[in-house]
Amino acid sequence: MPPKALAGRLSWRGLAIALAVLVPFTLFGSIMLMTPSPSILLGGGLGGADCAEAATATDLSDVAREDIPSDYLELYKKYGEQIGVQWNVLAAVGKRETDHGRSKLPGVRDGTNYAGAAGPMQFLISTWGGKPRIKMGTEFNGYASDGDGDGYGDVYDPADAILAAAKMLKRNGAPDDLRRAIFVYNRADWYVDQVLAIARRYAVTGGIDTPNPACDTADAPSDVVRKILEYALAQRGKPYLWGGTGPDAFDCSGIIYMAYRNAGLTIPRTTFGQWPFGERVEPGSEQPGDLVFFNAGPGTGPDRPGHVGMIVSAGKMIEARCTRCGPIKVTTYADRGNLVGFTRPLQNADVLEQLKRAALT
């Protein structure tokens, strides 16, 4: 470990010890929440938590109030809550990259820097979508987002860039696996350490809260769906394994197959089998327990999707994505490219018969 990084860690350890004397319970919670571990469904239900309160539980420190411009702070809070990542981590990335857009270095307001990054959150143009300003609704592969509602994803617009950064952090592990999410943003351990240190300074507690896992879910429409979701959500944090059906690792269709088995139901094992099995659901009508399919991987296409996730709430799914994509987690699907469609396995005739037999036994 570089001497500067070690010194930084030691100084923060000293701060943690001081906080432990003053606010032991807060410190204990922060330590537990910062420990990467599989998340489980908390409590007895799939909802009912005050998610708005959970998303803003880490209040502003004096440092944050003095350092973060009010318009940027509003965006960090707004999109942190909307996407489901810690606002202070999002703000720390903005601070580390461009001092919340105040930097006068090349690539912040126009052009790119020496590495090809642009805008207040310093996206590579290739990662953004191929060009700095993209009309939303056109085909592109990247994180370009429209935060200000003007119909364009502009890498230099703070609202667009901060929304996109929140999506990138979420897709790569936030809010639970922060080190991985930040490392993917900029692949250096020293960068991760600096961002986390800034995030702690921005929080009045000196810690980093994790949003309530129950906020990833909606009320289950039935007891059967509840059992399916409980099993799937309990697998968060476990690794992806091609062909895996647990209990230690799963692939995308394996976790769904086993979740339905947990409710006493048998559905096809593979994505290719699951796609034609369920009744098709119109976009916007999907509900928890339904499946969402994507055109991904060799040999796949619009009529043969190669990836599947399970809906857990509006716009969110649980998925086992790939070996290098991190652990099983809840992610967003509304902004995911190559979405093919939705199905409802519970409306398959064979599943309806299984449910009927189970009711009679």
Gist of the model:
With 361 residues, the protein is α+β, with helices and mostly antiparallel strands. The chain has helices at residues 3-22, 24-34, 51-55, 62-67, 70-83, 87-98, 125-128, 158-171, 178-185, 189-202, 223-233, 252-262, 271-277, 349-360, and strands at 117-118, 123-124, 133-135, 152-154, 279-281, 291-294, 307-313, 316-319, 329-332, 339-344.
Task: Give a structural overview.
Helix 5 runs parallel beside helix 8, helix 6 (87-98) crosses helix 10 and helix 11 packs across helix 12. With 361 residues, this protein is α+β, with helices and mostly antiparallel strands. The protein has helices spanning 3-22, 24-34, 51-55, 62-67, 70-83, 87-98, 125-128, 158-171, 178-185, 189-202, 223-233, 252-262, 271-277, 349-360; strands at 117-118, 123-124, 133-135, 152-154, 279-281, 291-294, 307-313, 316-319, 329-332, 339-344. The longest helix is centred in the first third of the chain and has 20 residues, at 3-22. Strand 1 and strand 2 form a beta hairpin. The chain is elongated. The protein has a six-stranded antiparallel beta sheet with strand order 5-10-6-7-8-9. A two-stranded antiparallel ribbon has the order 1-2. It has a two-stranded antiparallel ribbon with strand order 3-4. The chain is built from 14 helices and ten strands.
